[in-house]
Specification:
The structure is a single chain. This protein has 420 residues and is mainly beta. Helices cover 2% and strands 54% of the residues. It is built from two helices and 26 strands.
């Protein structure tokens, strides 16, 4: 058999982006939940820290202590990419991609992976997002990138969620494994425009791909033999052995660019979490995520609608639902648009202490947490890889009726982005 030799060795090149600017906002003050609870029954999520104040009648009363989140931010988001690729004599491409945050971060090295690509499809090994994530169509951003209702993939979220609300932002992109170490295979795209993808992630000992090294420290996406391979794994009360799959369909019909995707993932419970004090024995279950998106583009207009469901891997009523909808119009160097997102997260159950009306502690249903988030904005392309952008964002969090879970605000952000 004739061996396949690379015409040239892999040579690294630099790429990346920088986005920076200013945010001005007006937002409600938020309160912090008290630990342990001080003013309501054990497990009641309406607890909050209090401070004594003198009212108009001269009496000292306890009111929630709140935090002013500030009026301005100077934001910076940047990455430097080290990328390289070579083509073997048989036409197979082999490459590497390492992405480094261009600021001091606990996640200094972000995605990092190698890939092999040819007529058989594409195989990716390393810390990269899953197939359903990559194949997904989210709501379009009014600025093109960096801002938008889908904060997870748009980088910036100029408003601050209240600390006890289960919802921080909107994302219809799967958050099952983040960019933990995994293997992913993509098929070639078949007629009439369908491509499938499948991912396997051995372990993910914390959200967003951060794993604990034998209980001592953290690393992104697994550290050699310390996590994810069954040799020296942490037996933690979360999930492992994630299987994720999906497909998307792209096609142009009478000048309309159509895109649709459907994906899902399943994570097996690694170790059960037990909490007799919380009034429940088994707290975890296998985790399931389902995502879908639709994109339509015609004559400069691009519209998108997307959805995600996540059972969060928790017993009881703990489902989360995300919706996102957006519309943009681009002509020449200009882009204008708006989008909106809505999230409902069931807040599970709480152990209500004994008191009037209940002789023994009981489990009670907590209120659902919600977020509605909207944005209007635009961008102007100054030149290749250089653009100005500006956006106005509005957000409202609802929950249990206290400032630990409820807040609203408006923000204006503007800046410049460079891609290189």
């Amino acid at each position: 058999m004739q061996p396949a030799y690379a015409a040239e060795p892999v040579r690294l090149q630099l790429g990346g982006y920088v986005a920076s600017g200013l945010t001005l906002r007006m937002e409600d003050h938020v309160a912090t939940a008290a630990t342990p609870s001080v003013n309501r029954g054990v497990g009641d999520d309406r607890n909050y820290t209090v401070v004594g104040t003198t009212n108009a009648a001269g009496a000292v009363t306890s009111v929630p202590s709140t935090t002013d989140l500030g009026r301005s931010d100077q934001f910076w988001e940047a990455e430097v990419w080290f990328v390289g690729e070579t083509t073997l004599d048989n036409g197979v491409k082999i490459g590497v991609n390492v992405q480094m945050e261009a600021y001091t971060s606990n996640d200094q090295i972000d995605e990092h992976y190698i890939y092999v690509q040819g007529g058989f499809g594409r195989l990716v090994a390393g810390a990269e997002n899953s197939a359903p994530y990559i194949l997904h169509f989210g709501a379009p951003s009014p600025t093109g990138t960096y801002f938008g209702v889908e904060e997870t993939v748009r980088f910036f979220f100029p408003l601050r969620p209240p600390p006890s609300n289960k919802v921080s932002s909107v994302s219809t992109f799967s958050q099952l494994t983040g960019d933990a170490n995994k293997l992913t295979y993509y098929t070639p795209r078949f007629a009439p425009g369908i491509q499938f993808g499948l991912s396997y992630t051995p372990d993910d000992d914390a959200p967003q791909g951060v794993q604990t090294i034998n209980g001592a420290a953290n690393c992104k996406g697994g550290c050699a033999f310390d996590a994810g391979n069954g040799i020296s794994d942490n037996d933690q009360a979360n999930h492992h052995h994630f299987i994720e799959g999906g497909f998307n369909f792209v096609r142009t019909i009478d000048g309309v660019n159509l895109g649709f995707d459907l994906g899902g993932g399943y994570g097996f419970l690694e170790k059960q979490s037990r909490s007799a004090a919380g009034g429940q024995d088994r707290l975890g279950k296998d985790r399931v995520v389902v995502t879908s998106g639709l994109s339509l583009a015609y004559a400069g207009f691009t519209g998108g609608l997307s959805f995600a469901w996540d059972n969060l891997g928790l017993q009881g009523p703990n489902n989360r639902y995300d919706w996102a909808l957006g519309l943009t119009y681009g002509k020449g160097p200009w882009l204008l648009g708006g989008d909106v997102g809505f999230v409902v997260a069931q807040d599970g159950q709480a152990r209500q202490a004994a008191g009037p009306g209940n002789a023994t502690p009981v489990l009670v249903r907590r209120s659902n947490d919600r977020l509605i988030y909207a944005e209007i904005g635009g961008a102007y392309q100054l030149g290749p890889g250089i653009k100005l952008f500006s956006a106005v964002n509005l957000a409202r969090w609802d929950g249990n009726g206290t400032a630990t879970e409820e807040a609203s605000g408006v923000a204006w952000s503007t800046g410049m982005a460079l891609a290189f």
